[in-house]
Amino acid sequence: MTTATVSAPVPGHYRPSRLTVIRYVVGYAAILGTIPYLALKFAWLSGSTIGFRDTSLASDNSIVVLNGVTAGMDLIAVLIALAFTHAWGQRLPAWLVIVPMWVATGLLVPIAIMLPLAGMGELVASDASSTDPGVLEPWVQPMVYGGFAWQGVMLVIAFLLYARVRWAAVFTARTEAARPGATHAVQKALATGTALAAALIALGYLGVAVGAFTQGRESMPVTGHLVYAMHGVLVIAGAGGLLAMVRRWRGPFWLPLALAWTGAGGMFAWGAWTLTVVLADTALSGGAQTPVLDNMLNFGKLVLGVVIGVTSLMLLAERPATNPAAHPRRSRFDQA
């Protein structure tokens, strides 16, 4: 007669949950996506000219500084991916997570969306009008932007898994459910003004996208038109999301929040990057050839991105679903 042996749990043994395993996989997948870009940047910072057609550009001071800045930004992406993956990230101050992820979303998500669209646009248009071989080897751009797209997708998934634990109530809240806070009148004024300004800026971007403003863009490829269209959509999304939250339109709260988050992040991040490149007169800028309208649009979307971001923070701080301190009787975040 045999007796079945039932294995008892080993004291102190920890078996991670399925969600924890997914967070590990997604977080480290995001980190893997940074390796090719960081390797290329560190090679350039070390004096290598790999990937450059015009090797003199590799030693340009402005390019060296930009390489250092962008390498640092990708290292920050590694840190926030680790924060989303491990339990200690739940104990970090909220701003230390939100600010870099907001910028990362604004920079990377548009690339992740644009990459397949640009590829299809090139195939449909068969755009071979440009004979300029460029300053970089043909393999550099696909590797860099492919890595950015991968990072964008993985970081967003990792952030959603992280936020689902730390700010769980956001995913079930209704936009119209919360009472207006003390600064609601200010929020309404800012949201309305932002929507009006955004309409003008979006009109400028979409006008360029459809070919209404051609000065300085006579030979713009099809991908250029798609980029302008994308920026117009970001402006509309950011302003529309803020307006929906402030005006308390009926529906799930996460939807306008995601629109405002992504739109404002893209407006701020790309506006700041483009203006930095132009105003610093780096080797990447168009110099005097940069259309004045572009500089005005970039400055406008940078300012609007900041306004939408600050107004959204005011609103979130006064919603019990996102800030337990705004309603002492509500339960605190799950810190698991």
UniProtKB/TrEMBL annotation:
Coiled-coil parts of chain: none
What name has this protein been given in UniProt? LigA protein
Highest taxon of the lineage: Bacteria
Q: Which residue ranges traverse the bilayer?
A: 21-44, 64-84, 96-119, 139-162, 189-213, 225-246, 253-279, 299-317
Decide whether keyword tRNA-binding is in the record: no
Q: Does the keyword Cell inner membrane apply?
A: no
The record's keywords, sorted A to Z, are: Membrane, Transmembrane, Transmembrane helix
Organism the protein comes from: Herbihabitans rhizosphaerae
